[in-house]
Amino acid sequence: MKHIILIMDGAGDKPLKKLGGKTPLQVAEKSNVDFLAEKGRCGLFKTIPDNFSTCSGVANLSILGYDPLKYFQGRGVLEAAAIGVPLEDTDVVFRCNTISITEDNRIKNHSAGHISSEEASVLIEYANKNLGNKGVIFYPGVSYRHILVLKGGYSPDVECFPPHDYVGRFYKELLVQPKNSEAVKTAELLNKITEESHTLFEKHPVNLKRREEGKDIANMLWFWSPGKRPAMKTFYERFGITGAVISAVDLIKGIGLYSGLDVIDVQGATGLYNTNYEGKAEACINALKTHDFVYVHVEAGDEASHERNVELKIKCIEDFDRRLVGNILKEVDIKNTVISILPDHYTPVETGAHSAEPIPFIICDPLLPPDRVRKFDEESCSAGIYGLLEGESFINYALRRF
Question: What pTM did the predictor assign?
């Protein structure tokens, strides 16, 4: 039996007045996903433990059956693995965003207008030259997503604020806070770099050009999700199966690497609404020829939610259905494949921030009779036969370990 898990990042939402009291999942045209709901079994899954970060790293670890309370060591360290950053056990790693700050010192957006990787790389190299040293090292990533590694006596015990959750807020209200006396040095350093980056980047040629073109500028570095390198058992050690992960997002690639999954890159996969859905579908189909399990992650809907763009979110759901799921169903033997579909977490359009509600899911197992659910959405799946799952329950059902 083969196994596929398809992640529509951030698709969960709350009823919207603009949609007549329905959610984006309820109004989107998604015949392929609904077909799997009709043929499979549904339920809700609590991917975010109580009083825990609503980060995608937490949610995707939960989906794969890794307890976030034990294994989540920060988003930055997972993304560092994906881009090949060498880490020592004592290193402290942060996600480092290039963000846009308004003239009155508010966070305009978390992505510097989805700055290109090429432009951002120039700024990160500039930061290394002017703000870095042997113990403070910046690594460029994709678009606005980068890495900071601190070496030599720094602490991960600081409170940080994900910029996508605080758009419109004064940045000075959201500077890094130490959780204990050992972390004071770390917080002071990060806040110093944040302030200095604002001055340093404001008149950089990359930003001068972006401003002339009417684009948002990347005029600040923002640090969040600290942690150290985790130690995780691989999927093969846990389940005795081989697997692969397909994603445009370094966070997901990093989780895949730590869990022993092969990372498959797809040309044109962007993490945005213009991602290469067809390429991901083809990569999934090909990966099933040599692997038992494939994990396909699509970021687009989450980014649309962060932009508070409900029309774009609906389009992303429909593209996921038609261009990814539809193409996979054309080629995969559904009589010999368990196909699961779910968001990793809610990202309500009204707030633009992740939230912790249990997410809807489908597990279409050809060896099990379907339940009575006929549509894939938050309300319909709440009536599914699986009820509310937590912990390792979902991955055990998805991989037929019951």
Answer: 0.82
**Which string of b and e fits 302-336 if b means at least 16 CB within 10 Å?**
bbbbbbbbbebbbbbbbbbbbbbbbbbbeebebee
At which residue do the structure tokens 């991960």 appear? 156
The CA-atom distances, in angstroms, between 221 and each of 186, 200, 274 are: 15, 10, 26
Taken in order of first residue, the domains within the chain and their CATH numbers are 2-72+231-398 (3.40.720.10), 81-227 (no CATH)
- Which pLDDT tens digits describe the chain residue by residue (402 residues)? 999 999 999 999 999 999 999 999 999 999 999 999 999 999 999 999 998 889 899 999 999 999 999 998 888 898 898 888 999 989 999 999 999 999 999 999 999 999 999 999 999 999 999 999 999 999 999 899 999 999 988 999 999 999 988 999 999 999 999 999 999 999 999 999 999 999 999 999 999 999 999 999 999 999 999 999 888 999 999 999 999 999 998 889 999 999 999 999 999 998 889 999 999 999 999 999 999 999 999 999 999 999 999 999 999 999 999 999 999 999 999 999 999 999 999 999 999 999 999 999 999 999 999 999 999 999 999 999 999 999 999 999 999 998
The total of other beta-carbon atoms located within 10 Å of residue 274's CB is 11
